[in-house]
C-alpha cells in the first residue's frame, strides 16, 4: 500500500513544558497574567500580579496554570462555586479595587501605545453593584438524546463545553431564581431537543424568557410554557429565523429605565447589561455633552434610544443612527410618543456617508457608542465635520485607541475619561471619553 508523508502537527512538534517559580508581572487587556519565561512572554488565565506560579506552556503565547506556589497579596478567594470551570467571571480572584484599577490602567496603556494619547483628566470610576447586577444573560443548552439529559449553563473559557449551573452570582436575583425552575421546565419540553439557546431578560414591567428555536413549540409545549409563565410571573417569547413571537406575553414592547425616561425595547434588542451603571453612564454622558435646545446632536450606534431619549429631553435636536431597522422604528416611535425632537435613520456605519442624506446637516456635538469593532469608518466621517465636542463610549480599549488616533490627527484633545465598572468580576472594559477641538 502506498504511504504518504504526514507532517507532524504543531502540538506534536511542541510538547507542553512545565515551568516552576514564574512571577506574574502584570495583566493583559483580557485579564490574563503576564509571565516572562526563557521562551518569551506568556499569558496565563486565572492569575494575579504578584502570584508565583507553576505553569504548563501550551502555545507560543499561552501557558496554563498548574498551581499557585505563592499567592499575591491582591488575590481573594473567588466566591462563585463555578469559578474554576465557567468561562464567565474570570477576574473574581482579584480584589474589587484591583479589578477597576487594572481596567483603567489597560485603557491608559492602550491610548498611550496606539495613539500616543493621555487624557487630561481621569474622573473617579463609575461604580455600582458588583454581584447580581446582570439584567440579561444568554444560557447555552445541550440535550443529550441518548441519555435524555439536559445541560443548561454557560460555556467554559475558550470552549464549546457547557458548564451546567443552578445559580449565578452576577445575574440579577429575579433571573438567578429562575434558573432551577427553568431547567426543570426544559427537561419536560419536546422542543428542548431543538433549542438553540435561552435568554433571560429583566425589563421594568416583567422578566422575559426568550427561547431560540427553529420553529415555534407545539401545543403540548405551549401548555407547559403557559403554566410556567403563570407560576413564575414571566413572559415567554420564541425567536425563530422568521419571527419573534410572544408565546405567553402581550405582543407589545416592554421597556427599561434610562435617566428619567422609559426606553421601549423588545427581547431581541441590545440593552446595556448593568442597570444601575447604564443609568449613571447616561447621566455622565449628558453632563459632558451639555445639550441645550440650540444644539444639533448626531448620535451613532443609537440602539433603541438609551442615550437618545434622555438627550432629547433637554430640548436638543438629535439625529440618531442605528443599523437594525426594527430598533430604528422603535426608537422613532418612542420619541414621537414622548414628543421629543428626534429623527432616527437606519444606516450601516461601516460604510462611508456619501449616500446618507442626514450626513449633510450641521452637527455641533456627536455621541458614539459602537460595538467592540469600534467605528473605523464613522470616526473619520465625524472628525472631518469638526464638531466642537465628541463623546465616545467604548467597550473595547483597543478599537477606542485606534479611533482616538484619528481624532487626534484631526486636532482633537482627550479632555476627560472615566472608567465605567459595567462588568464587575469579568475582564470586559467599558470606558467613556470626551474629546474637544484643541
Ligand atoms: C454597544 S450597542 C449601543 C446601543 C445604545 N447606544 C445603548 O446604549 O443601548 C451598539 C449598537 O450599534 C449597532 N451597530 C453595530 N454595528 C453597526 C453598524 N455597522 N451600523 C450601524 N449600527 C451598528 C448595534 O445594533 C447596537 O445597537
Mean pLDDT over the residues = 95
- Helical residues, percent: 10-25%
The CATH superfamily of the largest domain is known as Vaccinia Virus protein VP39
In the CATH scheme, what's the topology name of the largest domain?
A: Rossmann fold
Q: Care to count the β-strands?
A: 23
Stretches where pLDDT is under 50 for at least 5 consecutive residues are: none
- For the record, the CATH class of the largest domain is Alpha Beta
Task: Please count the helical segments.
Answer: 10
Structural class: alpha/beta
CA-atom Rg in angstroms: 24 Å
Rough outline: flat
- How big a fraction of the residues is strand? 25-35%
Number of domains: 3
Quaternary state of this entry equals single chain
| Second rung of CATH, namely the architecture of the largest domain | 3-Layer(aba) Sandwich
Strand order of the largest sheet: 7-22-23-21-20-17-18-19
Q: Biggest sheet, in brief?
A: 8 strands, mixed
Cα(first) to Cα(last) distance is 75 Å
Q: What small molecules accompany the polymer chains?
A: S-adenosylmethionine
Family: Belongs to the class I-like SAM-binding methyltransferase superfamily. RNA M5U methyltransferase family.
Keywords: 4Fe-4S, Iron, Iron-sulfur, Metal-binding, Methyltransferase, S-adenosyl-L-methionine, Transferase
InterPro entries: MeTrfase_TrmA_AS, MeTrfase_TrmA_CS, NA-bd_OB-fold, SAM-dependent_MTases_sf, U5_MeTrfase_fam
Pfam families: tRNA_U5-meth_tr
Amino acid at each position: 500500500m502506498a504511504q504518504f508523508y504526514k507532517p507532524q502537527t504543531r502540538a506534536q512538534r511542541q510538547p507542553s513544558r512545565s515551568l516552576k517559580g514564574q512571577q506574574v508581572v502584570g495583566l493583559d487587556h483580557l485579564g490574563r497574567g503576564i509571565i516572562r519565561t526563557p521562551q518569551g512572554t506568556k499569558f496565563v488565565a486565572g492569575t494575579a500580579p504578584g502570584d508565583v506560579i507553576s505553569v504548563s506552556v501550551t502555545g507560543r503565547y499561552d501557558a496554563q496554570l498548574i498551581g499557585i506556589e505563592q499567592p499575591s497579596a491582591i488575590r481573594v478567594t473567588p466566591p462563585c462555586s463555578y469559578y474554576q470551570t465557567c468561562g464567565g467571571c474570570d477576574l473574581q480572584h482579584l480584589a474589587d479595587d484591583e479589578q477597576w484599577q487594572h481596567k483603567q490602567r489597560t485603557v491608559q496603556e492602550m491610548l498611550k501605545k496606539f495613539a500616543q494619547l493621555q487624557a487630561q483628566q481621569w474622573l473617579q470610576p463609575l461604580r455600582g453593584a458588583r454581584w447580581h447586577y446582570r439584567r440579561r444573560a444568554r444560557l447555552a443548552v445541550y440535550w443529550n438524546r441518548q441519555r435524555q439529559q439536559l445541560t443548561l449553563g454557560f460555556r467554559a473559557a475558550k470552549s464549546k463545553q457547557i458548564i451546567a449551573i443552578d445559580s449565578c452570582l452576577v445575574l440579577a436575583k429575579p433571573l438567578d431564581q429562575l434558573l432551577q425552575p427553568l431547567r426543570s421546565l426544559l427537561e419536560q419540553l419536546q422542543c428542548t431537543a431543538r433549542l438553540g439557546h435561552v435568554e433571560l431578560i429583566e425589563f421594568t414591567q416583567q422578566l422575559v424568557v426568550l427561547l431560540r428555536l427553529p420553529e415555534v413549540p407545539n401545543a403540548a409545549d405551549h401548555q407547559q410554557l403557559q403554566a410556567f409563565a403563570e407560576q413564575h410571573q414571566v413572559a415567554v417569547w420564541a425567536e425563530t429565523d422568521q419571527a419573534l413571537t410572544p408565546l405567553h406575553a402581550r405582543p407589545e414592547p416592554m421597556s427599561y429605565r434610562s435617566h428619567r425616561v422609559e426606553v421601549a425595547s423588545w427581547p431581541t434588542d441590545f440593552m446595556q447589561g448593568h442597570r444601575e451603571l447604564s443609568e449613571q453612564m447616561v447621566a455622565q454622558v449628558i453632563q459632558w455633552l451639555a445639550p441645550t435646545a440650540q444644539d444639533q446632536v448626531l448620535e451613532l450606534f443609537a440602539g433603541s434610544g438609551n442615550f437618545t431619549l434622555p438627550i432629547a429631553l433637554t430640548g436638543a435636536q438629535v439625529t440618531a443612527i442605528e443599523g437594525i431597522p426594527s430598533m430604528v422604528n422603535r426608537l422613532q416611535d418612542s420619541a414621537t410618543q414622548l414628543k421629543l425632537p428626534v429623527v432616527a435613520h437606519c444606516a450601516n456605519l461601516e460604510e462611508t456617508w456619501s449616500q446618507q442624506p442626514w450626513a449633510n446637516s450641521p452637527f455641533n456635538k456627536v455621541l458614539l457608542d459602537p460595538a467592540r469593532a469600534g467605528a473605523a469608518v464613522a470616526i473619520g466621517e465625524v472628525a472631518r465635520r469638526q464638531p466642537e465636542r465628541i463623546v465616545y463610549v467604548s467597550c473595547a480599549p483597543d478599537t477606542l485607541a485606534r479611533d482616538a488616533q484619528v481624532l487626534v490627527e484631526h486636532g482633537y484633545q482627550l479632555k476627560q475619561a472615566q472608567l465605567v465598572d459595567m462588568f464587575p468580576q469579568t475582564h470586559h472594559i467599558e470606558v467613556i471619553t470626551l474629546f474637544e477641538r484643541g
